[in-house]
UniProtKB/TrEMBL annotation:
Pfam families on file: Sel1
Superkingdom field: Bacteria
Organism: Thalassospira povalilytica
SMART domains in UniProt: SEL1
Name of the protein described by the UniProt record: SEL1-like repeat protein
Length: 439
């Protein structure tokens, strides 16, 4: 789980801001990347950072030079500005300034203006905690979660995240939401995950807002509510979040209203232009199954799905399996379909797991096996009333008592793959029904 460390400042309302997230947003505004081009918004963000202190101004100049934001790109000069930032942060941290100690740790973690050193970074996060930095509690938790500069320890990581979350740190609450969703270091609890995401989103976490959009869209940890899902996705999308844009686009692209479709398609293109894999996955679904204002395009869909597969994206594997199962632009080939589903399943795709379980249940493309069918359907974490849950129940009913015992032991001994680094997948169509309609 490659969670981001954070360098912070506090705005006029004493609200924590992640400086590099803000600088990235400024660049998106400047380039019109995933949102309308707005140089005035870029200037507002940069001016707010400049006003903080000499150290923050130097970070700002370092980013601008390194990224070519409004100036010519010069990595060497960017590093010079980061070195100046490190000097001032060190001066202030040595005097007990908590934000500066945390931010100095960040520079050592990333090798900006100083020699990259994870142990030194963790040391400064510890110093910052002693001085009273909440952000450093989160950062040190990330270090323990990943074993960066300290021995990997989920228990200690959770302790630091809980301390930070109790002090209203949105990033810590967001990570706790992920851990409860995955059952890492804690018992899996989607409802508790939802609660932590709500806490984080209300405290300003854009990532958590996206997570709420997903959870409400599929009924994960809370009752399914499409209107609320759209609302949270819109909030995150307005901040340039490509994941939210991709999923929001799926809602709009399925609308019978041409205006909403056009809005969704534009949003999806913007997210794809940012290189967002979720957006490419969503676009692949549309090209396979079609929507009211766009017919299927199997050749383009297969190209996109193969691109995703080359990146190791489980959704790409799954959609290729769908195409081979139902003969969408390719010959029907159940053995090949099962092979792609298995790759998706082993990478954590719930749709891939459910599809593979279904093939084992009927013995199509693979040898019929009730135990493996039950296992993969169970791994897909089917929601109440879903097709996967009904199929799992049907398989369980026809199994012998001995098969049930073996299946439950197999599930216990093989907990299966975790999801991606954010614990979230793009919202998915009911692809089995969609494929049946096209077959």
């Amino acid at each position: 789980m490659d969670r981001a460390l954070k360098m912070v400042y506090y705005d006029e309302a004493n609200v924590e801001k992640d400086i590099f997230a803000q600088l990235s947003l400024a660049q998106k505004h400047f380039q019109g990347d995933g949102m309308p081009r707005d140089e005035s918004a870029t200037r507002r963000i940069l001016d707010q950072i400049h006003r903080q202190s000499r150290a923050f101004a130097a970070v700002c100049y370092g980013y601008m030079r390194s990224k070519g934001l409004g100036v010519s790109e010069d990595l060497g000069e960017g590093q010079q500005w980061y070195r100046e930032a490190a000097y001032w942060f060190h001066e202030e941290a040595s005097s007990g300034e908590p934000i500066s100690a945390n931010n100095l740790g960040y520079l050592y973690a990333k090798g900006l203006g100083v020699q990259e050193n994870a142990e030194t970074a963790a040391h400064w996060f510890e110093e910052a905690i002693e001085y009273g930095s909440v952000a450093a509690l989160y950062n040190l938790g990330v270090c323990y979660l990943n074993g960066w500069g300290v021995a990997q320890d989920d228990e200690k990581a959770i302790e630091y995240f809980e301390r930070a979350s109790d002090l209203n740190d949105p990033s810590a609450a967001s990570v706790l939401a992920y851990l409860y969703l995955e059952g890492r270091g804690v018992n899996r609890d989607p409802a508790k995950s939802f609660e932590f995401n709500m806490r984080a989103a209300r405290a300003g976490s854009i990532e958590a807002a996206s997570a709420l959009g997903y959870a409400l869209g599929v009924g994960l940890g809370a009752e399914r509510n499409i209107a609320e899902s759209i609302s949270w996705f819109e909030l995150a999308a307005s901040e340039g979040d490509a994941y939210a844009q991709a999923n929001l686009a799926m809602y709009f692209c399925h609308s019978p209203e041409l205006k909403l479709f056009n809005r969704g398609w534009t949003m999806l293109m913007n997210a794809c232009d940012q290189g967002d894999a979720s957006a490419k996955y969503q676009m692949t679904q549309i090209l396979i199954f079609g929507v009211p204002h766009r017919e299927p395009d199997y050749a383009s869909a297969l190209d996109l799905a193969m691109d995703l597969a080359e990146l190791g994206h489980p959704g790409g594997y799954h959609l290729i399996g769908v195409m081979y199962e139902h003969g969408l632009g390719v010959p029907v080939d159940m053995a090949r379909s099962a092979s792609w589903y298995e790759r998706a399943a082993r990478k954590g795709s719930s749709n891939g797991q459910a599809a593979l379980g279904r093939l084992y249940a009927i013995g199509s493309g693979v040898e019929q096996d009730n135990i493996l069918a039950y296992y993969w359907l169970r791994m897909s974490s089917p929601t109440e009333g879903s097709q996967a849950q009904r199929e799992m129940g049907a398989i369980h009913a026809r199994m012998t008592e001995r098969e049930r015992q073996i299946a439950e032991k197999f599930v216990a001994d093989n907990p299966g793959p975790r999801r991606g680094s954010f614990g979230l997948k793009p919202l998915e169509q009911d692809v089995f029904k969609a494929a049946k309609r096209r077959s």
